[in-house]
Amino acid sequence: MARRKKEEIDDTPSLFDAEEDLMTIKPQVSVRNKLRLAKLVEVEETAMCRRAYGVTELLKLMRLQKPENGKSYHILTGGNIDLLSHVWWLFYHYAGMKSIFMSCWSINLNDIMMVERMIREGKLGKFEMILGESFRKMFKVESKKIEELQEEGIFGNVYMSSIHSKFCAIETVEGEKIVIESSANCNANRRVEQSIITVSEELHD
After folding, report:
1. pTM to 2 decimals?
2. Residues 43, 202 contacting (CB under 8 angstroms)
3. What is the pLDDT of residues 176-197, one digit of tens each?
4. For residue 62, which of 91, 96, 95, 100 has the smallest C-alpha distance?
5. Residue 17: CB partners within 8 Å, gap ≥ 6?
6. In this structure, how many other beta carbons lie within 10 angstroms of the beta carbon of residue 185?
7. Quick one: which of 31, 58, 103, 134 could link to 159 by a disulfide (CB 3.0–4.6 Å)?
8. Cα–Cα distance between 59 and 153 in angstroms, integer?
């Protein structure tokens, strides 16, 4: 049996490449090389703790709290919230997202379509992600949808690797850099999950 490739890169141009200064395309770097690099980042911050059950409750809880530089927001959720749920909070306070780079083991069809909608409506410029190496084998419907969106130029690079990390590195159109770290994948469930949202250029980069 042929050895499964752990890295797949699609160079399909993004739908938003033609937009003025919306994004900068950087030279491609092997995901294996990226993951071998270890970096310690110390962030001086004020921690704020919140608890929520479900996306609606999360948004009610957080929509009046604009993210501030140097602060981290620790959120304990009681279920029905996944990694991308926190992005909706950011839309209350920013005109749009310039880019999202996401790492998670899996992503469900609803979240794929949610990201597609963000891009088609002009709320998100560039979207890339790393998924678990067994994703294509275990989630055939979701994989087919991702491939279709790549062929159309909606999604950017999608990597496959042996990963278990869940995070989003986000840059807003205003230039704010935000990192979402979470125990949750992109599949809402009834489990208790914990997330940390930090506004930090150093952590993002």
Report:
1. 0.74
2. yes
3. 999 999 988 888 777 888 889 9
4. 91
5. 23, 25
6. 22
7. 31
8. 30
